[in-house]
Amino acid sequence: MFDKLKAAAGVAGLLKDLPRIQEKFVQTKDELGRIQCAGHSSCRRVRALMNARVELLSVDVDPKFAAAASSDAGRAEVQQAVTEAVNDAIGHARREAAVRVADAAREMGLPIPPQLLSQL
What we know:
Elements lengths: L1 H15 L1 H17 L1 E5 L5 E6 L4 E6 L1 H5 L4 H36 L6 H4 L3
Antiparallel strand pairs: 1-2, 2-3
């Protein structure tokens, strides 16, 4: 019985703080849009730039490497390198987002399970 009362009090507290919580998460979302995360291919000839909202901003390919795309084998190599760079950038962006969201939640006293953050 007391557990239910504690839970109800916790929910009431969250509802009271809802405007502040919403404002903080809007600020965090804006911050994630400004954070840039770079990813590279294993050959280091392709670089992908993404923000922490996991939006691709740009892909840079070494010009000499891109010239190799005129053949089928070269095209496959360039495609693989672009894929690697984008996936690397996604990983960096997700990790950065998880850290920033966890920090924002901690500042507001909201317990967010680590397994939930790992799914960002």
